[in-house]
Design brief:
Multidrug-efflux Transporter Regulator, Chain: A, Domain 2, alpha+beta
C-alpha cells in the first residue's frame, strides 16, 4: 500500500494539458501509467469550462519533467525496459496499485507520487512527521542548493550545501575565482572523494555543451596538469546536457557509508547563471517544484542574496543636460514621454553590451559592466557609450522637429574602472546593484563635468585597455588656439586644469581635481577591429 499524502498545495495538470505540452499521445500516456512510470491520476469533473468530457484525469505537475526525461532517454536509443530499469534504480517509479479516486473527493483527495523512501533516512512512517508538500523559498530550501554563474563560480550557496556537499565556507571567499566549483572539487580530494567525483562528472555535462576539450584549462586559473588530465578523462566519459529553463535529473550522491545526500537535481537556467537544488525524491520535491514554477520570484530572491564579491568592473553614468530647464519648459505629460523615450532609446544598447542596471542617487542612468572570463568589459562600456550618443542624436532631431525648439538633448557620460565590493541592495519591488567605493563616485563626477554629450573617462581605464582595443578608439584632449579647436590625440589632462572658472572651486570636483582624464571622441574604422 502507498503512504498517504495530503495533496493540499500540490499543483495539478490535466491529461489534456500533458498531451499538449509534451507531444505524447493518449495511448502513450496510458502505457506509461500501466508500466508504473507515472502515478495513476485523480479522476474528477473537469475544472476547465471549455472541456466537453464528463470526467478527466489530473496528475501532479511534476510528471511533465518525468515525461521529458523519458523522451530524452528514448531519443538516445534506450528501450522502454531499460528506461524503466534506470528510473526504478534512481527511485523514480511511483507505486500505482491504489484504485482511482472518485470525483466526489476533490480538495481532500489523496494520491501517492513519491519514490520509495531512502534507506539512509527515515520516511514519514518511520518518524511520524507529516508528508505534506513543503512550501519553501530560496532562503529556507531544506536541501543543498547553490547558484553557479557562467564561469562556474558559486555566487550564492545555502548552509546545507556548504556542510554536506562541499565542506567549505564559501561566504569567507571574497574573490570569485576562489569559489570556482571545479577547483574546489578537484583539490583536497581525500574527503568525500566519491561524492566529489560524481559532482565533477555532473557539472562537466554542462561544460561539454559550451567548451571543447582543448579549452578545459579555461575553467579556472591555476589548473595543474594533473587536474587537467583528470578533467579530460572525465570529459570523454560524460554526455553533454542541453540546458533548459527548468529541468530535473536523477543523480545518486551517496558516500562510502551508504548515506544518500540526494538522488535528483533540479536546475533552473537564466542569464546570470544556473541554480542547482539537490534533493531526495521522497522528500520536499513538490515544494521545490512549486518554488521553481515562479521563475521571476526565484531570480529576484537569488539576486538579493548573492554574496558581496570583490570584482573588477566599469561603471557608466549618464545624465541629461539641462534636465531641470527642459522639465520646466515641457508640459508634464510630454516631459515624462521624453524621459520614457530616452530610456527606450538606450536600454537595448546597455543589454547588447552586457550592462547591468545599478543604483544611482541622481536622476540619470547608471550601469555596471562586470569583468568576466574573456569578457572585454572596458571596451564594452566605451562602445556602449558611443552607441548611446548616436541614438540620442537621432532622438534629439525627432524632438526638434516635433517641438520646433532650440533645446538640444545631450546625455553627458562619465566612465570609470575599478575593483570594489559588488552586491545588491533590496529595494522593493526591484533589485538594485551597487558597488562600494570611489569608482562609482568618480564616474558620477565625470558625468557632471561633461558637457554637450561628451564621454569622459580616466587615464587608468585607458592604460588597462589592450593595445588592440586602444587602437580602435580615438581619444584625447581638446585645446583652443585662437578661434580653432584642436584635438591632441592620445593625451590626458587633470580635471583642475580643464575645469571652467565657475567650476574650479566647486565641491563636486574637489575630490577629482588631480584625476587624469581624457575624452572618448569616436571609434576608428580599423579593419579587423573589435566587433560587438
Amino acid at each position: 500500500m502507498m503512504n498517504d499524502r495530503a495533496t493540499q498545495g500540490t499543483r495539478w495538470i490535466s491529461s489534456l494539458d500533458i498531451i499538449n505540452k509534451t507531444g505524447i499521445s493518449r495511448a502513450t500516456l496510458n502505457n506509461y501509467i500501466k508500466m508504473n512510470l507515472l502515478p495513476r491520476p485523480i479522476v474528477k469533473k473537469p475544472e476547465e469550462t471549455d472541456v466537453r468530457a464528463r470526467m478527466l484525469g489530473y496528475f501532479p505537475e511534476s510528471v511533465i519533467d518525468l515525461i521529458l526525461q523519458i523522451k530524452e532517454m528514448k531519443n538516445k536509443g534506450f528501450t522502454m525496459d531499460t528506461i524503466s530499469e534506470r528510473l526504478n534504480h534512481a527511485g523514480v517509479i511511483r507505486a500505482a496499485e491504489e484504485p482511482v479516486i472518485p470525483d466526489e473527493i476533490k480538495t481532500n483527495s489523496e494520491v501517492n507520487h513519491e519514490a520509495p523512501p531512502s534507506k539512509s533516512r527515515p520516511s514519514s512512517a518511520d518518524d511520524g512527521s507529516p508528508r505534506n508538500p513543503l512550501k519553501v523559498t530560496i532562503s529556507d530550501i531544506p536541501c543543498p542548493a547553490y547558484l553557479l554563474n557562467n564561469n562556474f563560480e558559486i555566487d550564492w550557496v545555502n548552509q546545507e550545501a556548504e556542510k554536506t556537499l562541499f565542506r567549505k565556507d564559501f561566504h569567507a571567499m571574497k574573490e570569485p575565482a576562489e569559489r570556482n566549483i571545479f577547483s574546489q572539487l578537484l583539490r583536497n580530494r581525500g574527503e568525500k572523494e566519491q561524492i566529489k567525483d560524481r559532482l565533477v562528472d555532473f557539472h562537466l555535462r554542462f561544460v561539454k555543451e559550451r567548451i571543447g576539450k582543448l579549452d578545459l584549462d579555461r575553467l579556472y586559473d591555476g589548473m595543474t596538469s594533473l587536474e587537467k588530465q583528470l578533467l579530460e578523462a572525465k570529459y570523454d566519459a560524460v554526455d553533454p546536457l542541453h540546458r533548459s529553463s527548468v529541468h530535473k535529473i536523477y543523480l545518486d550522491l551517496s558516500d562510502h557509508s551508504g548515506m544518500r545526500l540526494s538522488d535528483c537535481v533540479y536546475f533552473m537556467v537564466f542569464r546570470e547563471g544556473t541554480l542547482f537544488i539537490h534533493a531526495l525524491e521522497a522528500n520536499h520535491t513538490d515544494g521545490i517544484a512549486n518554488l521553481l514554477s515562479s521563475r521571476t520570484s526565484v531570480i529576484n530572491d537569488l539576486l538579493r542574496q548573492r554574496m558581496p564579491t570583490l570584482v573588477s568592473f566599469c561603471v557608466l553614468v549618464a545624465d541629461l543636460q539641462n534636465s531641470v530647464r527642459i522639465c520646466a519648459e515641457l508640459p508634464p505629460e510630454e516631459y515624462f514621454e521624453l524621459i520614457n523615450q530616452i530610456w527606450a532609446c538606450v536600454e537595448g544598447t546597455f543589454k547588447r553590451y552586457y550592462g547591468t542596471y545599478g543604483k544611482h542617487t541622481g536622476d540619470g542612468l547608471l550601469y555596471y559592466f562586470l569583468k568576466e572570463r574573456d569578457n572585454q568589459y572596458m571596451i564594452n562600456a566605451i562602445s556602449c557609450a558611443l552607441e548611446i550618443r548616436e541614438n540620442i542624436k537621432k532622438l534629439n532631431m525627432d524632438w526638434k522637429m516635433r517641438k520646433g525648439w532650440f533645446n538640444e538633448l545631450y546625455l553627458n557620460i562619465g566612465i570609470n574602472e575599478g575593483q570594489e565590493y559588488f552586491g545588491t541592495i533590496p529595494s522593493s519591488p526591484n533589485i538594485e546593484f551597487t558597488a562600494l567605493g570611489d569608482t562609482v563616485n568618480y564616474a558620477g563626477r565625470l558625468s557632471d563635468f561633461s558637457r554637450f554629450g561628451a564621454i569622459w573617462t580616466t587615464k587608468n581605464l585607458i592604460n588597462k585597455l589592450s593595445m588592440e582595443d586602444r587602437a580602435i578608439i580615438r581619444y584625447g584632449i581638446r585645446h583652443r588656439e585662437h578661434e580653432r579647436e584642436i584635438l591632441i590625440e592620445n593625451s590626458f589632462a587633470r580635471v583642475m586644469d580643464m575645469a571652467l572658472p565657475d567650476h574650479q572651486n566647486s565641491s563636486k570636483f574637489m575630490d577629482i581635481a588631480t584625476l587624469a582624464i581624457t575624452e572618448i571622441v569616436e571609434r576608428r574604422q580599423v579593419p579587423g577591429s573589435f566587433a560587438s
